[in-house]
Write a structure and sequence with these properties.
Length: about 500
């Protein structure tokens, strides 16, 4: 046994670091799982049909264009400054610390809300399987898949299991996600191909005509919903400090994004070939299981339901990964507490932050029981998060245009790619968000807890933004974060915070 010589101090143990173990395939798995194509198709096709009728294929194509422009902005910014805080760091440096903090804040809060509601979706699917197995009640409690309370309770169990997987290693988590993706996409493609070939609804090129949408409000709401379908591909950039090369993050995000476009258009056409518009709207969040039951007998009819459950589980797991890492970036800038910077020395992951994020999501899920029907809860969440996504995507794209504004001297092509495309994409999404927010404000004259009430639909994203400004003020004046002096995020290699007396 050795002792420290007199007059000397014991050397400080080097801080634990994030492990660079991920490649392109892992980035694809994280981005695709976070996008959750199967879940989006299953619960979103009915919603988008109720908004824009049979023009879903047209909106998928239109929504893809600004999203692609924003993806190119992410890739360019990531090459310039790889950081797990991505938009929070990039916007802070280019547009200022207040919009930068707001970008990080709305990204995190929107994802936490998504985690809470996706947990309820997963619980609902588990309950459907229980009903199929003949288990309709337990300890006197009805196992009703349409019950928000019961679905949420089951979903909380799933959240706990996913938390363990996310804590014990991101590489093992991505491998599981990749396996789930292969299964769910195989099932989705099989049933959609079947519907496309045998469907009795006549195919029409008008499905790709956005001018047949009934109103500007319906178009804006539908386009925001379609953007929400693509939401999640940017998760690949949150693990840029854990990838072997920053370029791997961009490749993974782009591959997942183009794959999602193909799946969304293919599925929207297939659904409309098999189901009439009233039929599609009626089945809403159960559209994919309904399709399976309509086309096949048991046990094959349950395969789409199983794919939906796998998609929801993978989506929850892949969503908590970027959220914990975004909070890590904010924590090491002291805009958030130091607890978020704790890296588990055994697993090389932000374990404490992951557990806290999931605990907050579980608490929100518990509060969601005030909305009696799961479908109402889903509709409210999708619309609210769509506005939040439009905000932080738009700000990040504008940050790219500002940062690389010198490219205007490098020729028309470089100016277009570095400035024009990101600026146009960001402006489109921010404009859509403002228009849709105004339409929500004017569609009702009172507040009511209902997805049909405009004030209610607007209240959640408004509360998130206001909360962001409050937390930014706390970070600047309470924590005295240097981020608000420089607008620069902490360097990716500087994971240890300096000693300070700011609150945790």
């Amino acid at each position: 046994m050795t002792s420290t010589p007199p007059g000397r101090t014991t050397p400080a143990r080097p801080p634990a670091e994030l492990r660079r173990s991920l490649g392109v395939v892992d980035g694809v798995a994280i981005a695709a799982s976070s996008t959750a194509a199967t879940t989006s198709i299953a619960i979103g096709m009915g919603t988008i049909a109720a908004t824009v009728g049979l023009q879903a294929p047209a909106l998928m194509l239109l929504a893809f264009l600004p999203v692609l422009g924003i993806a190119s902005a992410y890739a360019r910014l990531n090459r310039s400054e790889p950081n797990c805080g991505n938009g929070y760091v990039w916007v802070g440096k280019s547009l200022g610390p207040w919009p930068g903090f707001l970008t990080g804040w709305v990204t995190i809060v929107g994802t936490v809300i998504f985690l809470a509601f996706t947990g309820a979706v997963t619980g609902s699917v588990v309950l459907i399987f229980a009903n199929k197995a003949g288990l309709n009640s337990l300890a006197g409690i009805s196992l009703d898949p349409q019950s928000t309370a019961v679905s949420t309770a089951v979903g909380l169990v799933v959240l706990a299991a996913v938390t363990v997987l996310a804590v014990t290693g991101v590489r093992s988590a991505t491998r599981l996600q990749f396996g789930l993706l292969v299964f769910e996409y195989a099932v989705l493609l099989f049933f959609c191909t079947w519907a496309l070939v045998t469907g009795r609804q006549e195919f029409s090129l008008s499905w790709f005509n956005p001018f047949e949408i009934s109103s500007g409000k319906a178009f804006a709401q539908g386009l925001v919903l379609a953007v929400f379908f693509f939401w999640g591909w940017d998760a690949a950039f949150s693990v840029t400090e854990e990838t072997k090369s920053p370029e791997d993050s961009a490749r993974g995000g782009f591959i997942a994004l183009f794959a999602m476009l193909g799946l969304f258009i293919f599925a929207s056409v297939a659904f409309q070939r098999e189901m009439s518009l009233p039929e599609l709207i009626k089945n809403g969040p159960q559209a994919l299981p309904y399709l399976g039951a309509k086309l096949a007998a048991e046990p094959w009819a349950s395969l789409p339901l199983l794919a939906l459950m796998f998609s929801a589980v993978a989506s929850v797991q892949s969503s908590v990964i970027p959220t914990a890492r975004g909070l890590l970036a904010m924590g090491r800038d002291r805009t958030m507490g130091r607890v978020w910077t704790r890296i588990n020395p055994k697993y090389g992951t932000p374990a404490a932050g992951t557990v806290i994020v999931m605990s907050i999501a579980a608490g929100i899920a518990g509060l969601a029981v005030v909305i009696p029907k799961l479908s109402d809860m889903l509709l409210a969440a999708v619309n609210a998060i769509g506005l939040v996504v439009a905000l932080y995507y738009g700000l990040t794209a504008l940050a790219c245009a500002v940062r690389f504004r010198a490219a205007r001297h490098e020729g028309p092509r470089e100016a277009l790619l570095a400035i024009g495309v990101p600026a146009a994409s960001g402006t489109i999404l921010l404009g859509l968000g403002v228009y849709l927010g105004y339409s929500y404000l004017t569609m009702s004259d009172h507040f009511e807890l209902s997805p049909d009430n405009g004030w209610f639909m607007l209240s959640l994203p408004a509360a998130i933004v206001i909360g962001g400004f409050v937390m930014a003020a706390v970070a600047k004046y309470g924590r005295r974060s240097p981020y608000f002096t420089t607008g620069h995020g902490t360097d990716a290699d500087a994971l240890a915070l300096p000693m300070d007396r700011t609150p945790a």
